Amino acid sequence: MQSRFKNSLTALLLVVLLAANATAADWERGVALYNKGDFRSALAEFQDLVRERPDAAGAWYYIGLCEFKLKRYNKVELPLSRAVELLEVQTPASPDIAAAFYTIGLSHFLLAEYGKSLEPLKRYIEITAKAKREVDPAAKTTLGRAYYFLERFDEALSLLATSKSDNAKEAGANAYLVGLMYFKKEDDDKAILALREAVKANDKDEAALELLAESLMRKARKVTQAASANALWNEAANVGEQLKTRRDDLQTANVLGRAYLGGRQFEKAVAPLERLARENPDNGQAWLYYGIALSRSGKTRKAMEALEITIQLLPDSVPALSELAYVYESDKQYQQALRIYEKAFAATNDPAIKQSIDRVKALATQQP
Question: In terms of pTM, does the model score above 0.85?
Answer without folding.
Answer: no
